[in-house]
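QA checklist item 7 of 12: single-chain prediction sanity check.
[x] sequence parsed
[x] length recorded as 292
[x] structure emitted
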Amino acid sequence: MVHDNNAGLIAPDLLRALVAVAQAGSFSGAARALGLRQSTISQQIKRLEEATGRRLLDRDTHRVAITAEGEAMLDHARRVLDAHERMGRYLSGTRLRGRLRIGASEDFVLSALPDVLADFVRRSPEVTLELTAGLSETLYDQFEAGLLDVLVVKRCRGDQRGTLAWSEPIVWLGRPDYRPSAGEPLPLLLYPAPSVTRARALEVLERLGQPWRIALTSASLTGLTAAARAGIGVLPHSARLMPPGLAVVQAGLPALPMVDFVVIGPGGRHELADALTAAILQWAASGRAQSR
């Protein structure tokens, strides 16, 4: 009798490709997350489907969807990869240890960071984390002063450092039923200066001659969100990191420019920073990031 032992011979990189595609929702996103070519990811998925004898993904010109058999395989893949990683750490005798000082813009801290840190801490439980949340400009200064190891921030003009996590246009946020009063200055809910989104929103309004007034300033996203939910004004913000209870306000408001979110590390070989950077970039490329 011949037994099919293919499942026991599947290389971890094939399983890793499946997990990355499922998280990113695309071959290109998976390629970015794993640092590979898109064609390599496609070949790895093809080899995995051939090895298992199952169709794991449905593809068309616009999207990639995981099949029911792919979902079942995905659960196995994650457990195998986790065990493989733990075995590698055991055999190498090394585990990530030490202190990592993270600086992150508050919108990232209050939306995505819990997901990123949960995965990171599960993989590296002996790492001590120190988190500083604040305005991107302020965090840049602290990084320059040697007070932070890793930044997750909006890119400042002219600064080319770091790895691009994602780009998106800034949008106007408010409560779902909010409509600006016609003929009145646009009431704004803003971070204090320096703030990347504040500066870019005000530049657009000034250039277009749009009347505006500052209805509320707060260094806390919680405070800005509360004011937006109360209908006090509109908040220029990332749609991907949108706080709950808010919606994009159309209502003829001017389009706002793009903003880049980047991850900046200490440079050189820094295992803790490299591991966290990889976790953040994987989140950024994942379907969870797209659906926020």
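[x] summary fact logged: The longest strand covers residues 163-174.
[ ] second reviewer sign-off
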